[in-house]
Every structure is written in structure tokens, then in C-alpha cells.
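Subject: Sanity check before I submit

Could someone independently write out the C-alpha cells for this chain? I want to compare against mine line by line before I put it in a report. The sequence has 67 residues.
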Amino acid sequence: MYVGDEIKRVLEFMDSEDCDIAIRAGHAMADRFQEDMAITQNLEVVKLSECREPPLEIISYKGRVNR
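---
Independent answer below. Compare away.
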């Protein structure tokens, strides 16, 4: 799982478990809603299309790979 530079900087000031939960939730929600998600400055996970502030991290929806 990719973790960007912005959220790595937040790890210095926040509980790393909270950041881990936000990242995992972002990936799960991207799969569920089939669209990109954003993690806000307070670690809230919202749809990128509905994010009203500069996101801390963007979780891109990659889609499912057919096997």
C-alpha cells in the first residue's frame, strides 16, 4: 500500500495508528464507492469530489483486475 509524503509528515505529530486506520479506510471506501477518496487534515475520509479543503492524501481508485 502506497503512503504519500504528506501523510508521512503528519505521522510525526499524530498517532500513527490513527493514520494507518485512515489510509486503510480510504482504500476500502475507494473500492466500495469506486471513486477516488481524500484524507483531510483531521484524518476524515471523504470522496475527493466532495472534499472542500486541500487533502492531506488522495487515495486513487484503481478498479478491479479481472483474473
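---
OP: Matches mine. For the report I'm noting this point. The beta strands are 37-39, 45-47, 57-59.
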